[in-house]
Amino acid sequence: MNNQHWLSQNYFIFFFTWGVYLQYWPGWLSEAKGLTVSEVGFIMGFGLVARAISTMFAFPFATKFMSEKKLILGLVISSLIVTILYLPANSFESLFVMTFLFSFIYPSLLPAIENSATTLMQHSTINYGKSRSYGSIGFVIAVLIISFIIGSVGEKAILWCMIGFLFIMLLMQTRPAPNVLLVKPTTEDRGKSSSMRGLFKIKGFPIILLIVILLQGSLASYYNYSYIYLQYLNVNTNYIGIILNIAVLSEIIYLMKADALSHWKTSTLLLVAGIGSTLRWIIIFSFPNIWAFILSQTLHSVSFAMAHFAFIQYISKTLPRQQLSNAQGVYSALGMSLSAALLTLFGGYLYEISPGLSFLGMIVFTIPAIFIVIATRKKYQY
């Protein structure tokens, strides 16, 4: 199979399942399993901890002994088994255990596929942005399909949709994968050059990581409070989903064209992302109306997508293959999980003071990111 097609298809079907997990899992625990909001929050909070531990430690460790293709296959099979085991779980204790286990296994598929992407970028001509945009398309389609299904049969269908989508993903893993993803790491690959400590000794990497943690973490209020903020603005519930999807559409448009900016320096991409992100939160705070919020949605293309693309471009061009999984694991754990979890608490505190302040508060992280880029770009030549 063509390398580009393989990557695009895997992004598409994974984000199909990711749409179910991110958007509907808390609702399924609450509506289908009868948990209280506080119980759901407790379970999902520990799920984030499990996800962070797994992606930062377990995932990089597994990549030292398994080929990228075999690791993805193993994660898909394990995720499917755990999802099926959810069926008889009804008590708080059993749902807590199953969610912790599921959160430990399933989210590692994201850095696993991203790791495959960076490997392919190092060994062949891959249009990363184009393939990654298929993931965003899959996410949008999944959310629309699940919304229709829930409206027809109720929240109990959410688990069955996840089981079905993971089964489709499993079937896709039976198709031929690029040869470079079939290579099993050697003893030499597991040497000092692949240690986590060695990763942080690579010139410039700690700075790049800090910047993307700040930028990705600053999206916490958007991810967690946008829905209730739009309700605060008296937006009709039927239109909220459409408005929130504008961000994903802007992300898709950017990713489709992102590789045209591959000649831009990582520092330039991160600087634009920081400025765009800061502007986004200022607009929401300064103009508390639906039209300003819609305008700010278009900036998701830079505040998330450009920052993400900059990091992927940097590690694919700079890091040795032995360190790619470590970089993906740390980025996923700190940039996508723990930072968001911590900043959600900060954003929630600000939201109680004033809804718009929850978004403005995120510039406490974007502005330092801008200054870090300006202060370090010449020194580290990134």
TrEMBL record:
One of its GO terms (cellular component) is plasma membrane. Residues 6-355 form the Major facilitator superfamily associated domain. GO terms for molecular function: lactose binding; lactose:proton symporter activity. SUPFAM superfamilies: MFS general substrate transporter. It comes from the Bacteria. Keywords: Cell inner membrane, Cell membrane, Membrane, Transmembrane, Transmembrane helix, Transport. The chain crosses the membrane at residues 12-28, 40-59, 71-89, 95-113, 134-151, 157-183, 204-225, 237-256, 268-284, 290-312, 333-351, 357-376. It is found in: Cell inner membrane. Signal peptide: none annotated. Gene3D superfamilies: MFS general substrate transporter like domains. It is a multi-pass membrane protein. This is MFS transporter. It comes from Lysinibacillus antri. The lineage of its organism: Bacteria, Bacillati, Bacillota, Bacilli, Bacillales.
